[in-house]
Amino acid sequence: MLLALDTCTNSPSIALYAAQGIVGEITWRTREHHTRSLMPEIARLLELVAVEPQQLQAIAAATGPGSFTGLRIGLSAAKGLAYSLNVALLGVPTLDITASAGALLALPLCAAMSTGRGRYAAALYEIKAQTPVRTSDYWFGTAETLAPQIAERVREPFVLLGEMDDALPEQLRAYAGERMTLAPRALQLRRAGFLAELAWRRWQAGERANVETLAPYYVPTAALA
Question: pTM value?
Fold first, then answer.
């Protein structure tokens, strides 16, 4: 049994995953209250599906980019649980989770998310064997600076998906026109079920993260200027 924690934004999400798939999942809106809500929601999820903490075999966490506070809280909780239960720890980049929601789409993906103060993080992905494979660097900037970079790089039809306001889609539409398709809102919200599935595959393949050295990936300081 694997427990997945995603606290990168104001929409934290947690999920339990086993060999048969998702066992339970909770996603909610919060106002930077991850500290107060995360552990009670984990306890509620375990109780809801009648799972004891001792049944957990792995803990997965979203590693960023994302909210400084949210990432710190989620990763600290994941490390604490993995250490105390003596189970495997895995880290998965946030935009990999976002892209995973489009695993059945036939087009290339641009996964993006708001990072605050009118800025965004974005990356390009292809789906191979239902797994997102990043094909670009991470990009950071405003809608005005990111849209021309994305449109210049992707010369074919693509799907934009991820948690963001309307500014980036509007700017990107101005540059890419009908080449861009905006994913439905239900696909834009990151869900820990996608994180759990990615982490489960990596865990089954033998991947492990070091509890002491696994670190969050924050938005570079230069991108906040």
Answer: 0.94
Query: How many whole angstroms separate alpha carbon 193 and alpha carbon 133?
Result: 18
Decide which of 3.30.420.40, 1.10.760.10, 3.40.50.960, 3.40.50.720 is the CATH code for 2-94+190-224: 3.30.420.40
Q: Using alpha carbons only, how large is the chain's radius of gyration in Å? A: 17
d(CA 221, CA 225): 7
Give, for 37, the enclosing helix (H) or strand (E): helix 34-48
CATH code of the region 103-188:
3.30.420.40
Query: ∠ CA(54), CA(98), CA(104), 5° rounding?
Result: 100
DSSP designation for 96: H
Would strands 21-27 and 180-182 be described as parallel, antiparallel, or unpaired?
Answer: unpaired
Lowest model confidence (mean pLDDT) among 26-35, 38-47, 113-122: 26-35
